[in-house]
């Protein structure tokens, strides 16, 4: 494939958003839709993969300036991969690998020694992180409380006449089976880490 990894530019924004939403469509992040590209408070690495003038992949890594300020593990300075996506027509052709390699070589500019990445339960994505040298170090549950029967007795409001219809929650307890029994949409959110 004719592939170029280069820094993100403002003119890429529409193609960046389209690539991300298409990439996520068949994953557990299918409804995590952005309408504008995020910007970061800390120094960042923002790269795109371009093939024949088309944006086919992207990676954003934010580097922390104080240990533990954005990373889960407060050990040395780390960088968080906030966005990683390869267009579905270009997946499994080495684009993700090239993006990660380029981000790693830029990581020394941020003085970070580790990358952290959060992902849900998509087997392909998990396989990619593990093949790329990442190790799962923590997980908890993402719980969507969407249906009236699920919300019954759980969602309430202190505002008169305001009824809460749905909610998104984090579950960090140990009875995961109970949570999975009670709610239909539950994801395991996993933290992967890799030393650089
Ligand atoms: C995860 C992702 C970034 C990987 O990028 P990629 O360019 O497709 O992957 P690469 O070509 O670098 O690596 C391919 C390897 O990763 C693993 N892999 C990637 N996708 C896979 C899938 N759907 N099923 C099984 N293994 C998969 C395999 O080990 C594969 O090697 P193989 O094809 O020889 O079996 C990309 O598939 C993607 O954008 N997925 C959807 C969005 C997403 O989940 N983003 C991360 C959110 S946190």
Instruction: Name the poorly predicted regions.
Output: none
Q: From the coordinates shown, what is the CATH architecture of the largest domain?
A: 3-Layer(aba) Sandwich
Q: How many DSSP helices? A: 5
Order of helices and strands: EHEEEHEHEHEHE
Radius of gyration, rounded?
Answer: 19 Å
The main β sheet shows up as: 8 strands, mixed
Terminal Cα span? 27 Å
Question: How much helical structure, as a percent, in the residues?
Answer: 10-25%
- CATH C-level class of the largest domain is Alpha Beta
And the CATH topology of the largest domain?
A: Aminopeptidase
Strand order of the largest sheet: 1-2-3-4-5-8-6-7
Principal-axes shape call: globular
Bound molecules: coenzyme A
User: Please, what is the CATH homologous superfamily of the largest domain?
Assistant: Gcn5-related N-acetyltransferase (GNAT)
How would you portray this structure in words?
By secondary structure, the chain is an alpha+beta fold. It has two domains: 142 residues, Gcn5-related N-acetyltransferase (GNAT) (Aminopeptidase, 3-Layer(aba) Sandwich), CATH 3.40.630; 47 residues, no CATH class. The protein has an eight-stranded mixed sheet. Bound molecules: coenzyme A (COA). The site of coenzyme A has 21 residues, from helix 1, strand 4, helix 2 and helix 3.
């Amino acid at each position: 494939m004719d592939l170029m990894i280069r820094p993100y530019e403002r003119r890429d924004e529409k193609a960046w958003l389209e690539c991300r939403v298409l990439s996520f469509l068949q994953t557990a992040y299918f409804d995590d839709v952005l309408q504008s590209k995020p910007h970061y408070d800390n120094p960042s690495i923002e790269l795109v993969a371009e093939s024949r003038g088309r944006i086919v992949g992207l990676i954003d890594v934010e580097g922390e300036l104080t240990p533990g300020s954005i990373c889960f593990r407060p050990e040395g300075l780390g960088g968080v991969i906030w966005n990683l996506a390869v267009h579905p027509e270009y997946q499994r052709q080495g684009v993700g690998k090239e993006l990660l390699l380029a981000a790693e070589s830029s990581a020394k500019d941020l003085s970070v020694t580790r990358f952290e990445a959060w992902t849900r339960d998509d087997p392909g994505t998990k396989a990619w992180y593990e093949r790329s040298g990442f190790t799962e170090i923590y997980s908890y549950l993402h719980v969507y409380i969407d249906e009236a029967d699920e919300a019954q007795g759980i969602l309430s409001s202190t505002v008169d006449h305001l009824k809460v219809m749905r909610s998104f929650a984090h579950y960090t307890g140990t009875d995961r089976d109970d949570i999975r029994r009670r709610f239909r949409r539950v994801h395991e959110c996993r933290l992967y880490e890799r030393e650089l």
